[in-house]
Amino acid sequence: MLAKILPDLDFLRLYRAEGLWCFDRHDLGLERELFVGGMTELIDAVIAEKPFPVPNPVLLFGGEFNPSTRLTLIWKESRAQEDGEWNRYHCREMDKDGWLGPCLLRFFPEAPQYLHFEIYDAEDPFSVRLVQWLSNKEIGSLAAAALNQK
Hints:
Oligomer: single chain
Helix content: 10-25%
Strand order of the largest sheet: 1-5-9-6-7-8
């Protein structure tokens, strides 16, 4: 019953390409989706403040607050571009802005006012237990797929 109380979360296994953080989500038709427009720098800042190395980063995120997430992106503006809608967010904890591209709308029906997130290491025992616990929820197969993608 506890799983019904907590809001849904999603996971992305992050990796570097062309000097930027990116991810794959084959179930959503996304491959080598780059974090641009300040988001790679934001991810770097979050990882740099960790007291331990994060060689296999996993981004845990959702549109509603969850105790597993400690950082918040606050929506600031949208801009229509040739390739779709881009949304600018501000992370108050890191005092940084970044843009999320049209693929945001593959995860949400519209750009959420708040995106709550955290970055964990896929090899960290806590992260593995968290994913195992969440695997009892509907997103379990997505979480497992995100962790297994390289």
